[in-house]
Amino acid sequence: xxxxxxxxxxxxxxxxxxxxxxxxxxxxxxxxxxxxxxxxxxxxxxxxxxxxxxxxxxxxxxxxxxxxxxxxxxxxxxxxxxxxxxxxxxxxxxxxxxxxxxxxxxxxxxxxxxxxxxxxxxxxxxxxxxxxxxxxxxxxxxxxxxxxxxxxxxxxxxxxxxxxxxxxxxxxxxxxxxxxxxxxxxxxxxxxxxxxxxxxxxxxxxxxxxxxxxxxxxxxxxxxxxxxxxxxxxxxxxxxxxxxxxxxxxxxxxxxxxxxxxxxxxxxxxxxxxxxxxxxxxxxxxxxxxxxxxxxxxxxxxxxxxxxxxxxxxxxxxxxxxxxxxxxxxxxxxxxxxx
Length: 339
Fold this sequence. Notes:
Blueprint: H1 5-12, H2 17-25, H3 29-45, H4 47-51, H5 55-92, H6 101-109, H7 116-137, H8 144-181, H9 194-212, H10 228-273, H11 282-299, H12 308-338
Helix pairs in contact: 1-6, 3-5, 5-6, 5-8, 5-9, 7-8, 8-9, 8-10, 9-10, 9-12, 10-11
């Protein structure tokens, strides 16, 4: 595999700013995310006593504070575990990837890094998208203090997303390319199971972002009016891409390898089967039985590079509860709108 100049530049670049800030503060990822989320939440909620808002407006402010606090808290707290976890997944795939050690080291190091020039471009794009989103949200209709805070939080969220999400997409594309080069072990699927981890770990992070939109229903009969849906659509689209891309290459390689092995086993079996089975020697019958047993094992080998027991636990305890809650919130919005 040829390492592109951009990936080489990533390996020599500094780590993402959010990871460097967490390291500088000497905080664990969860405490760093919690601290950032609390600061955002408290900053938004300060409007209630400062502007002496009534109960209805205060409840709506609470929904916004929870949404921005949870979203930004998840972004800050998940950046390091997700990106560094990707580097560990890459290390776990050494046995199935025909890549020199020097190239491996380059790819691993670059999993958490972005060149400064690219970081500046992403920052500019985040600011532009945040400003455009603010225009669509029609904040100018509201009181000035509320406008400034809402615009600031929207900009901060877009900048945070554009700081982390493009790197997740880049890593997903890398795993897709590596999967197309992999030599999957059909009888020991755990050797390439890290491709599944590379897809599921960032997916859980984005599921949390998507579910945070449910907080916007608090005190607002129509929270997805104007341009709020844009952020939700962007998160959903990214979620789909981050799950599909790391699995695409390795899925194709598993399918191709299984087809080749089955064809070879069938050819070997046919060589024995050319004579009548009743006339075959005992050692030939034993060889045929071994080939048939191996063929059955290969045919039943998992076609997905994932641990299904782990997936079931993730779905049961992590994904399904917040998704159910978000679906219930969306249903309530639709029913209220229809009535």
